Amino acid sequence: MTTDTLKMLGSAPMRYFNKRFEGFREDFSNINLQELAKSIVIPCVAFSIFLLIWAAAASQVNTSLGKLPGPARVWEQAMVLVDEHNEERGKEQRFYERQEKRNALKLAEDPNAEVKIRTYTGKPTFFDQIWTSLVTVATGFFIASLFAIPIGIVCGLSPVLYQAFNPLIQIFKPVSPLAWLPIVTMIVSAVYVANDPMFEKSYLNSAITVTLCCIWPTIINTTVGVSNISKDLLNVSQVLRLGWWTRVTKIVLPSSIPMMFAGLRVSLGIGWMVLIAAEMLAQNPGLGKFVWDEFQNGSSNSLARIMVAVFAIGLVGFMLDRLMLQLQKKVSWDKNAVLR
Amino acid sequence: MANEHLILSQVGIAFPTPNGPFTALENVNLKIEKGEFVSLIGHSGCGKSTVLNIVAGLYQATTGGVILDGKEVDEPGPDRAVVFQNHSLLPWLTARENVELAVKQVFKKSKSKAEMAEWVEHNLSLVHMEHAMHKRPDEISGGMKQRVGIARALAMEPKVLLMDEPFGALDALTRAHMQDSLIEIQARLNNTVIMITHDVDEAVLLSDRIVMMTNGPAATIGEILKVELPRPRNRVELANDPQYNHYRAEVLKFLYERQRHTEQKEPVESKKQDETNVTPIGKETVRAA
Fold first, then answer.
1. CA-nearest residue of chain A to B155?
2. CA distance B78 to chain A (A)
3. pTM assigned to the model
4. What contacts A61, CB < 8 A, 6 or more positions away?
5. Residues from chain A contacting residue B90 (CB–CB below 8 Å)
6. What CATH superfamily classification does B6-81+158-288 receive?
7. Nearest by Cα to A294 from A56, A54, A71, A80
8. I want to staple A279 with a disulfide (CB 3.0 to 4.6 A). Which of A268, A284, A297, B104 is the partner?
9. What is the ipTM of this complex?
């Protein structure tokens, strides 16, 4: 927009902006360029250098599945995965169209005929698998939060309970998902025996393993948040003679929310990382299984497809983290705190 | 005295330390009438805040006790509302909600919802905060936060209003403004007030009596000065008032002549205790002197 058009608009804020703009135009454009360079150009350059090094290094490595794929082949496979997805969706659509037609014909011949509606059972595409992984991690994370927040609150409020829980937390915190999974699998097989199971066992196994690995940061952070409530606020609650419930809901919870969400964010990150390993072993049809199947498959494209999965895992993890950050900013009452 | 509203009788407190109990206060005796404004003044670390916390019920006296309207004080409660030095507002609530929390807690049985809402607003208007009542503490200035803190305390309709260096964290101009506001509120409500301060002008300007505390450890009341200046008081007019300046001089003399070298006169044991104790009494006194 030129200065003239801005003047023509003539509203007060515009005029104000205009005035500021005139005065600072020089520095403004400089700052803008610098900011632009910082936020876009530098990451782009770094990423390009990474791609170059990758391309150069990959061509030097020979594996039993051929040369290590470079960026070009990985991109090609990513496109193949998209095509496979579209093709599968097309097949599904055609299947349902055929079924509808068949049923319509049947009903036209005999209005009382029983029509069968079958669901399409094609193999899951890469994007279906991403979705499965997301649902699984969300389940595990949700269960973890459901337990972690109340436990954290009571541990923060009561030094005795803290002493009781702390050793357990410290011992179980560093345990790998690969150690949990066999135990979880055995317990789920023993306990979850239904003729018409609502959930796949593999899904439960993966989700529970995620829960066991990502519950700890939320517990610890919530505990710290609750036990660090300012003494002044506790004095206020004493002077007001707030009851236990009012104290928890009006003072303890709000003041520990920033710490709690910091913990939830770490938990979700760990959960997503752990999920891939859990899915590999539990054979839950998500990204972990995709990686495992490609590894077992051993075609000349397998490595490139696994690398696509690596980038997908990274990107989804990054987006989950951003999502939690937005949530954290939204619920944090301390708007001056810098969250990143 | 005919009207003994609040009595502090033989109040003393000792805190446990690794080297045995540390006596912070000893033999504090004070009787306060209804509607009286009393200031506690003394050097940092002399136990002024401890006295206030005992009256509030946040600390339990080791010896002696506090009696309010014939009943012993043994726990905190809204009949002894506290205005804390650093406002202590809940940062996630607006000014209005902060006052509302107190009002709901104190009047949930005796007032209807509409009455409570009206009472909240009435108290906010007393401290001239009705224009910013929907703002959160981090959106308003330090003086405004303290106003809300005072509104919250007043809204509890306390028998005694306790103020712990209420204006200590404010700049001089804001402080003067807040003192004028407090004079105005006091003229309307005539509350019983105990205020802690280390500002001599503030003490003389606001108080009916000034209680001067000796330095710790084992601090106690050194002198009590009755301030018989007519109300309403005006800071500008009082600046050249000989009576006012006399009171000022009295307090200053107490603080900087009689209480100046106390730590050097102290017995050897207590000095030793002083060094190992967590409460930095000795050092603070040196700085104040």
1. A240
2. 5
3. 0.76
4. A67, A68
5. 233, 236, 250-251, 254-255
6. P-loop containing nucleotide triphosphate hydrolases (3.40.50.300)
7. A80
8. A284
9. 0.79
